[in-house]
Design a protein that fits this description.
The complex is a heterotrimer of chains A (288), B (304) and C (243).
Chain A lengths: L1 H27 L8 H18 L4 H31 L5 H24 L12 E4 L2 E4 H23 L1 H11 L11 H26 L7 H15 L4 H21 L5 H15 L9
Antiparallel strand pairs in A: 1-2
Helix pairs in contact in A: 1-5, 1-7, 1-8, 1-9, 2-3, 2-4, 2-7, 2-8, 3-4, 3-7, 5-6, 5-7, 8-9, 8-10, 9-10
Chain B lengths: L1 H18 L6 H27 L6 H15 L5 H23 L4 H27 L4 E2 L6 H23 L2 H11 L1 H6 L4 H23 L5 E2 L1 H4 L3 H13 L6 H19 L4 H15 L3 H14 L1
Chain C lengths: L3 E10 L2 E11 L4 E5 L6 H9 L6 E6 L2 E2 L5 H6 L2 E3 L12 H11 L7 H13 L15 H14 L4 E5 L7 H14 L5 E5 L3 H7 L2 E6 L2 E7 H5 L2 H14 L1
Parallel strand pairs in C: 3-8, 3-9, 6-7, 7-8
Antiparallel strand pairs in C: 1-2, 1-4, 4-5, 9-10
Helix pairs in contact in C: 3-4, 3-5, 4-5
Classes of the chains: A mainly alpha (288), B mainly alpha (304), C alpha/beta (243).
C-alpha cells in the first residue's frame, strides 16, 4: 500500500516537476507570470489526443512534434503579447501586474477556443494501459512511459542549463536582467528563449498528461495552480527546487487521493502552499 | 457645482434607479439587477485592488460562498440572519487568505486568489458528497425580483459611498501610497499588512453579500453553478475599463460591459468566451489605466 | 545615555557578512558622516537602523528603545526618517500628498489641516513652496531629491538617515544641498549621512565613521579620520580595484 502510493506518487510527480520547470523558466527568466500556462498544457493534451485518435499517430511521436510546436507558440506569444508589455513597463515594476492581467485574458481566450474546437467533455485515450510490475506494484505502462519522457526532458534541460554557454546566458538573465547586458548578453533574446522554452516544456508535460489522465477544456486553472505552488515551494527560478517540489507534490497528492479522497487533490496542493507561505515563503530549498 | 456633482447627482440617480422597477418589464428588471450586481462587484473589487495593485482573481470565490451560504441556511434561519452569516463567513475567509498572503510580496496573494474558487468548490463538493450525501440545494425565499434588485442597489450605493469615504480617510491615503511604493509606505509609518488586510476584508465581505443577495434568482444551486470563473473575469475587466483607482470608474466600466456581455452571450454563445478574452487583452493593452484616465490625458494634451 | 546606540550590529546574507559587529553611539543633535568604499556595508547599516532589514545579530536602540529587527513602520513612528540611495518618490501623488504621508502616519498622526501645515513647512524648508499641487512624477531630479528630503522632514524625526542624498547633483545644486542640510543643524535633528563627496562631509560633519568590508575601521573627528592611513588605504584599494 505504502509502496504503491510511493511509486504512483513519484510517477505523477515527474509530470508535475516538468510542468513546474516550464513555469519557473517563464517567470524566472522572462519575468512573465503566466496564468494561461495550464491552458498551454491543455492545447498540447488535446492535440495529442486528436493526433492519436484522428491520425493514428503514436503519442511518442506526437510529443516529439509538440516540443518544437510549443516552443514556436511560446516564441510567438512572447513576441506579440509579452514584449510590448515588457517595453512599456521599463524599470517601473508594472510588468508583473500587466503580465498577470494579460495572461488572465489569454487564459479565457484559449479556453474559449478549446471549448469551441474540442467541446466541454472530459477526454482521454487508451494507450498502453496494461499493467507492468514495478517492485511488485502494478503500474500502468502509459504512466511509466510518461515518467520516462519527463525524466529525459527534465534531465536534458537541467544539464543544458548547468553546462552550456547558452544555459549560462539564461541563468545570468534570471539572476540579474539589469547587469546582464553589461557583459554582452542580449536580454531580450534570452527572455524570449526562456518564455518559449517554458512553453515547450508545458507542451511536453501536457502531452504526457494526456497519455494517462482524463482532462477537460476548463481544467487549465488547476494545472497552473499546481505548477505555481511547486515553483513557490522550490523557490522562484530554482530548477533543482522545482524538480524536488514537483515530486513532493506528486507524492502528497497520491497519498491524499488514496488515503482520503481523490476529490481533494487541489486541497492538498493548497495545504502545501499554506505551509510554505507560513513557514518558508522564500521556498523550501533555498538557503536562508 | 462641486456639491451638486458629489452629492446631488448621485442621490438623484439613486432615487431614479430605485423607482425604475415600478416601470420596468421583467426583462428590463433582470438587466437592471445584473448591472447593479456588477457595479457592486467591480466597485468592491476596486476598493482593494484598484489602489494597491494587488490583483485579486478570487471574486467568485467570495460571491459563490455568499450564494452557497444562503442555499445551506435559507430554510433554517430568518433571512437577515442568513445575510449576516454570509457576511461573517466572507470576512472570515478573507482574513484567512489575507493573513497568510498579505504580509508577503503581491505575487503570493495573486496566486492564492487564482486557485481559491476552485479550492472552495472542491471542498464544498467533497463535503456535500461525503457528509450530507446530496449535491445541489434549493433556495426557497419569499423575495420578488424587485426585492432582490433593491437590496443589490442598496449594497452598490453603500459600496460606492464607503469607497468615497475611505478615499478621504487615512486608510484611503495609505492604500494609494502602498500602490505607488510599499517601501516608502512602510518607512513613513504605514502598517502595511494591517492596511491591506482591512481593505481586503471589507471588499471581500461586500462581494460575499452580493452573492448572498443575488442567490435567490437561481432557485437551484450547486457548486459548479455558483463558482463560475467568468464572474471573477468580468469583475476585473469592468473595473479596469472604467479605471480601477477612480471612485466611479468601476461603475462606468460595468454598465456598458454588462450590456455587451448580455448581447454576446445570447447571440454568440459559442464564441462568447473567445470574444471576452480578446476584449480583456484589448483593455489591458490599450487602456491600462481605464477610460477616465484616458480622457483626462487627451484633455491635457489638447491644452498643451 | 546615548541617543542612538548601535551595539555589534551584524547582517549576513548567506555566506556574505555585509555588516560585521559594528558598534558606535551618536549623541542627540550630532551630525555624523558614514564613509567607505562601495560595497562596504554603509547602506546595509542604514537598512538595519531603519528597519528595512532585520539584524542577524547585535542590538540597535534609540534612547533605550530597541529598533533592530522591528518593522520599518514601527521604527518610523519611533522617530526615524530616511531617504533612499536611488531617490524614491510617489510619482502618482501630488507634492503635498507625498510630504503629508509621514505627518499622517508618523508618531504624531496629524490629520487634515494640521498635516497640511506640517507638509507646507517641510516643502518650504527645501524650497518647493508654491508647487504643492504638482504631481511628483513630473519633477526634475534635483527637485525629486528635495521632495524626498521634505518627506523625511515632515516626519518630524529625531534621527534622520540620509543615504547619499547629495549624489548626482551639479556643483551649484551641491552647494544648495549642503546649505540645506546645514540649516537642519539648528533644528536639533540627529543626522547620520552616508556620503561619498568629501567636500560635503568636511563642510557638514564634525564626526566621520568609515566602514570597509562590513567592519567599522575608523571613528573620530573628520579631519583626523580622513588622514588616517588605514582609511586612505581602504579608499586607495578601491581605486586600485577599479583600475
Amino acid at each position: 500500500m505504502l509502496l504503491t502510493t510511493l511509486i504512483l506518487g513519484v510517477v505523477l510527480g515527474g509530470t508535475y516537476a516538468l510542468l513546474a520547470l516550464g513555469l519557473t523558466l517563464q517567470y524566472g527568466i522572462a519575468r512573465i507570470m503566466n496564468l494561461a500556462y495550464g491552458e498551454l498544457t491543455l492545447i498540447a493534451a488535446f492535440l495529442l489526443v486528436w493526433a492519436f485518435q484522428g491520425l493514428g499517430l503514436s503519442p511518442l511521436v506526437a510529443i516529439l512534434l509538440l516540443a518544437p510546436a510549443g516552443y514556436a507558440l511560446g516564441w510567438a506569444l512572447y513576441t506579440l503579447m509579452m514584449r510590448p508589455l515588457v517595453k512599456r513597463s521599463g524599470a517601473s515594476g508594472r510588468l508583473e501586474v500587466d503580465s498577470i492581467l494579460a495572461t488572465f485574458g489569454l487564459l479565457f481566450l484559449i479556453q474559449g477556443v478549446l471549448l469551441l474546437v474540442f467541446g466541454p467533455n472530459f477526454t482521454s485515450i487508451s494507450y498502453l494501459d496494461r499493467g507492468v510490475s514495478v517492485l511488485g506494484v502494478t503500474v500502468a505502462a502509459n504512466r511509466l512511459v510518461a515518467f520516462g519522457i519527463c525524466l529525459v526532458a527534465g534531465t536534458a534541460l537541467v544539464v543544458a542549463l548547468a553546462r552550456t554557454r547558452w544555459g549560462l546566458t539564461l541563468r545570468a538573465v534570471a539572476l540579474s536582467p539589469v547587469s546582464a547586458p553589461l557583459v554582452g548578453i542580449n536580454v531580450d533574446r534570452a527572455m524570449r528563449q526562456g518564455f518559449a522554452l517554458g512553453s515547450s516544456l508545458a507542451a511536453v508535460a501536457g502531452g504526457t498528461l494526456a497519455m494517462y489522465q482524463t482532462f477537460s477544456a476548463t481544467g487549465g486553472v488547476v494545472f497552473t495552480m499546481k505548477a505555481l505552488v511547486i515553483v513557490i515551494m522550490g523557490g522562484v527560478g530554482n530548477v533543482g527546487g522545482a524538480l524536488a517540489a514537483g515530486l513532493a507534490l506528486g507524492l502528497v497528492e497520491t497519498f491524499v487521493a488514496t488515503a482520503i479522497d481523490p476529490g481533494l487533490t487541489l486541497a492538498a496542493t493548497f495545504a502545501l502552499f499554506l505551509i510554505v507561505l507560513l513557514w518558508r515563503p522564500e521556498g523550501l530549498f533555498r538557503r536562508r | 457645482m462641486r456639491i451638486f456633482l458629489t452629492y446631488a447627482l448621485p442621490l438623484a440617480a439613486l432615487a431614479l434607479l430605485a423607482i425604475a422597477p415600478l416601470y420596468a418589464s421583467a426583462y428590463q428588471l433582470g438587466l437592471l439587477l445584473g448591472i447593479a450586481t456588477y457595479v457592486t462587484l467591480a466597485s468592491a473589487w476596486a476598493l482593494f485592488s484598484g489602489h494597491t495593485r494587488y490583483i485579486s482573481l478570487a471574486t467568485v470565490a467570495f460571491y459563490g460562498t455568499g450564494a452557497y451560504t444562503v442555499a445551506v441556511l435559507n430554510e433554517s434561519l430568518p433571512y437577515p440572519m442568513v445575510l449576516a452569516t454570509a457576511g461573517l463567513i466572507g470576512a472570515g475567509l478573507a482574513l484567512v487568505v489575507g493573513l497568510s498572503t498579505l504580509r508577503l510580496a503581491g505575487i503570493y496573494f495573486v496566486i492564492f486568489s487564482f486557485g481559491l474558487s476552485e479550492l472552495i468548490r472542491e471542498l464544498i463538493t467533497w463535503y456535500e458528497v461525503n457528509v450530507t450525501g446530496t449535491l445541489g440545494r434549493y433556495i426557497f425565499l419569499d423575495l420578488t425580483p424587485q426585492d432582490i434588485y433593491w437590496q443589490m442597489l442598496g449594497l452598490g450605493a453603500v459600496t460606492i459611498a464607503l469607497t468615497a469615504w475611505i478615499h478621504r480617510r487615512r486608510l484611503g491615503l495609505a492604500l494609494r501610497v502602498i500602490g505607488d511604493d510599499e517601501t516608502v509606505a512602510a518607512h513613513s509609518g504605514i502598517h502595511l499588512a494591517r492596511v491591506k488586510l482591512i481593505a481586503f476584508v471589507l471588499a471581500s465581505t461586500i462581494i460575499t453579500l452580493a452573492g448572498a443577495i443575488a442567490s435567490p434568482r437561481w432557485v437551484y444551486v450547486e457548486p459548479s453553478i455558483v463558482f463560475n470563473p467568468t464572474v471573477s473575469f468580468l469583475t476585473v475587466i469592468m473595473a479596469l475599463l472604467g479605471g480601477a483607482n477612480r471612485l466611479w470608474g468601476p461603475a462606468l466600466g460595468a454598465v456598458p460591459l454588462f450590456l455587451i456581455f448580455e448581447w454576446l452571450s445570447s447571440d454568440f454563445p459559442d464564441t462568447y468566451p473567445i470574444l471576452l478574452g480578446l476584449l480583456f487583452i484589448g483593455v489591458v493593452f490599450l487602456l491600462p489605466h481605464g477610460v477616465l484616465a484616458g480622457i483626462e490625458q487627451l484633455r491635457q494634451r489638447r491644452k498643451a | 545615555m546615548s541617543f542612538l546606540t548601535i551595539d555589534k550590529a551584524t547582517k549576513r546574507f548567506g555566506g556574505l557578512t555585509a555588516v560585521n559587529e559594528v558598534s558606535f553611539t551618536l549623541q542627540e543633535g550630532e551630525i555624523a558622516g558614514l564613509l567607505g568604499p562601495n560595497g562596504s556595508g554603509k547602506t546595509t547599516l542604514i537598512n538595519l537602523v531603519s528597519g528595512a532589514l532585520p539584524v542577524s545579530g547585535g542590538v540597535i536602540t534609540l534612547e533605550g528603545k530597541t529598533l533592530s529587527s522591528r518593522r520599518p513602520d514601527v521604527v518610523a513612528r519611533a522617530g526615524v526618517a530616511r531617504t533612499f540611495q536611488l531617490v524614491r518618490i510617489l510619482p502618482s501623488l501630488t507634492l503635498m500628498e507625498n510630504v503629508m504621508i509621514p505627518a499622517v502616519f508618523g508618531a504624531k498622526a496629524h490629520w487634515g489641516r494640521a498635516a497640511e501645515v506640517v507638509a507646507e513647512t517641510a516643502l518650504a524648508q527645501v524650497g518647493l513652496k508654491g508647487r504643492e499641487g504638482l504631481r511628483a512624477g513630473d519633477l526634475t531630479y534635483i527637485d525629486q531629491k528635495r521632495l524626498e528630503l521634505a518627506r523625511a522632514l515632515a516626519a518630524e524625526p529625531r534621527l534622520l538617515l540620509l543615504d547619499e542624498w547629495l549624489a548626482g547633483l551639479n556643483p551649484t545644486e551641491l552647494q544648495q544641498g549642503i546649505a540645506l542640510i546645514r540649516s537642519l543643524r539648528e533644528t536639533g535633528i540627529t543626522v547620520l549621512m552616508v556620503e561619498h563627496i568629501m567636500e560635503a562631509v568636511r563642510a557638514l560633519c564634525p564626526r566621520a565613521l568609515v566602514m570597509n568590508s562590513g567592519i567599522l575601521i575608523a571613528d573620530g573627528e573628520t579631519g583626523a579620520v580622513l588622514s588616517d592611513p588605514q582609511v586612505i588605504a581602504a579608499y586607495l584599494g578601491q581605486v586600485d580595484a577599479h583600475a
